[in-house]
Design a protein that fits this description.
The chain is mostly helical. The chain has 11 helices and no strands. It comes from Streptomyces achmelvichensis.
């Protein structure tokens, strides 16, 4: 890059897209807890007040960062196999979140879905409907999937502490927990947000759910029959 090109790049006008891309990259580098409007302004070599022309506050910045990450998810594939379409899109969402380890936590912290998340969920609901699931079943499917639709699962507890043999003190009061701990083999390097949300566990649960939904579709399940 020539000095003239470098100067032009440095002086490129600030806009919302540039602010969000810089925020995502900065969060990847220093972590979401260290991200602040002042730190982002330093990264962009602008005064902090310049950011507020594009994002009203930190919460709006985080909303925009979520939308930027969701924008990386691949579009749905074509084809009649709704399970393959849904599975492929969810695993693409997971890959996006793995590229941005902070994203799952920020998504969980939002008080409501952002525009990109709403658009994504609408397309996912459409994939279920195009696969022959009724609107009623699709409604319950979306609830059952929960955060898995966006590529991560919310665990009851964070079990991502130090690895090693299970605590022998668990065996007597909690024999079944101890038994599971002794047989578990998780890939800690691929977890999203800690806990047991590794790739194997995620895909195991995802396939189990998708097969179950297909079974309900074939049965013509409706919520009116749940009693």
């Amino acid at each position: 890059m020539t000095p003239q090109e470098a100067t032009h790049t440095q002086r490129s006008p600030l806009n919302k897209d540039r602010v969000l891309r810089a925020a995502v990259a900065l969060a990847n580098a220093i972590g979401i807890d260290a991200l602040s409007m002042r730190r982002l302004a330093q990264e962009l070599d602008v005064v902090p007040m310049a950011l507020y022309k594009h994002v009203a506050n930190k919460e709006e910045l985080l909303d925009g960062m979520v939308d930027a990450v969701v924008g990386e998810i691949d579009p749905p594939a074509a084809g009649p196999d709704w399970q393959r379409v849904v599975r492929g899109r969810i695993l693409s969402a997971r890959r996006a979140l793995l590229r941005h380890p902070w994203a799952a936590r920020v998504i969980e912290s939002r008080t409501g879905p952002t525009p990109a998340v709403l658009a994504y969920l609408d397309l996912m609901a459409g994939a279920f409907r195009n696969g022959g699931l009724s609107a009623d079943l699709t409604h319950h499917v979306m609830h059952a999937m929960g955060s898995r639709l966006l590529g991560f699962s919310q665990e009851l507890f964070d079990t991502s502490g130090p690895s090693g043999p299970p605590d022998p003190g668990l065996a007597e009061p909690y024999p079944h927990i101890a038994e599971m701990a002794a047989t578990a083999a998780h890939d800690g390097g691929s977890s999203v947000g800690g806990g047991c949300d590794d790739q194997f566990e995620f895909e195991f649960a995802l396939d189990l759910l998708l097969d179950g939904f297909e079974s309900l579709r074939r049965q013509g399940w409706t919520s009116a029959r749940k009693a």
